[in-house]
Design brief:
The chain crosses the membrane at residues 14-36. The protein is of the alpha/beta class. Helix content is 38%, strand content 12%.
Length: 365
């Protein structure tokens, strides 16, 4: 089964409240499960020093006239900023400063992320966030790594994430989700655990993307955003524990999220003039499951809800637009074409000229 189909199946199972086994471990058998447990214990001994907490980054950022923009951050230790040395080095603080600069308005940051949180913990976080800020403007969620390491059922994890996104959308907030990072990029993790962690991470990230878009949010692929720099110099993008990002790593993740957060707040005027996907850069419009599969392979990719001919859904589900808002540090070859088994059907009116395609004029299929 391809990743797009797995993502769609996980999201559909989540929508109906089912489960799919403990993080997909069933197929490995008892021997494989025992091996992973031993290697996980070894990994905990390999990683570096542990941190006692994260800096408190809540507060006001930037200056300017007008009402402050209300920003929420939810999720796990990445959202909390574990590994940062100063409150201004967290993802939330970096995004707040960026939004303040783009908008010319101050930004009030409320951070309810919890170290060690899993997706089922998002419900209480949403409640605390909305008690503090009844009508937020935008919420950023960073979640998924602990779902993989703690072997949370993917359908269960995705269901809780989707509920959190819907609750925040109902409260009037735009929602941006940084999907599960690629844990196979963490150097201290031994093989074959790294290969399995990569697959689980990417499958979860793809399923998260489908669920987030279905709930009206925007997903941004975090993927292996830090792996190249980590391989070159582990002290640059990862902190002393060799697991959580360093201040430089957090800055890089924030740089991937900031354009989407700014677009969600309409700081670029995109609501009245949405940008046309650039097919030469691998952007396009297509079924959300196909977009999700492509996004996990390229960090910094945004997947957001869209419409084709005024319709939010086609024969293969929710329409989504895939955008590469974060420019790569080096030239990236054009994405491979979507396999025929995953391409949109002609009735979905999607062009076959690009990896995702673009909607054709009326009457053209």
């Amino acid at each position: 089964m391809g990743r797009a189909r797995r993502a769609r199946k996980i999201a559909q199972t989540a929508a109906y409240g089912g489960g799919m086994g403990v993080a997909g471990l069933g197929a490995l058998g008892l021997l494989g499960y025992a091996l992973l447990r031993v290697e996980a214990l070894l990994t905990r001994r390999i990683v570096g020093q542990q941190f006692e907490g994260a800096p408190d980054d809540a507060g006001r950022y930037g200056f300017g006239p007008g009402e402050p923009i209300r920003l929420l951050v939810l999720g796990d230790s990445t959202g909390a900023g574990m590994g940062a040395e100063h409150p201004h080095q967290t993802i939330g603080a970096t995004i707040a400063n960026g939004v303040a600069a783009f908008s010319g308005r101050p930004v009030d940051l409320t951070n309810v992320a919890v170290i060690g949180a899993e997706s089922p913990d998002l419900g209480p976080q949403v409640e605390r966030a909305l008690e503090a800020v009844a009508v937020p403007d935008v919420a950023v969620i960073l979640i998924g790594a602990n779902d993989v390491t703690h072997r949370i059922d993917k359908a269960v994890a995705v269901r809780h994430l989707e509920m959190a996104v819907r609750r925040l959308r109902d409260a009037g907030a735009e929602v941006v989700v940084g999907t599960c990072p690629d844990l196979g990029a963490i150097e201290p993790v031994p093989q074959p655990l790294r290969l399995l962690a990569r697959r689980w991470s990417r499958d979860l990230a793809a399923a998260q993307t489908v669920a987030v878009v279905e709930a009206g949010g925007r997903a941004v692929s975090v993927g292996d955003l830090l792996s190249e720099a980590f391989s070159a110099d582990p002290t640059v993008m990862f902190s002393a524990d060799r697991f959580h990002p360093s201040p430089a790593g957090y800055a890089r993740v924030a740089a991937a999220l900031l354009p989407t957060v700014s677009a969600a707040l309409d700081l670029f005027g995109e609501r009245s003039a949405p940008p046309a996907p650039d097919l030469r850069r691998g952007e396009g419009i297509g079924p959300v499951a196909v977009a999700a599969k492509r996004a996990v392979a390229r960090p910094g990719t945004e997947v957001a809800p869209t419409e084709v001919r005024g319709q939010p859904r086609g024969a293969r589900g929710r329409w989504a637009v895939l955008l590469h808002r974060m420019r790569p540090a080096m030239a990236v070859p054009a994405s491979d074409p979507v396999p025929a088994s995953e391409a949109a059907a002609p009735s979905d009116a999607v062009a076959a000229s690009g990896p995702m395609g673009a909607p054709q004029p009326d009457g053209v299929t």
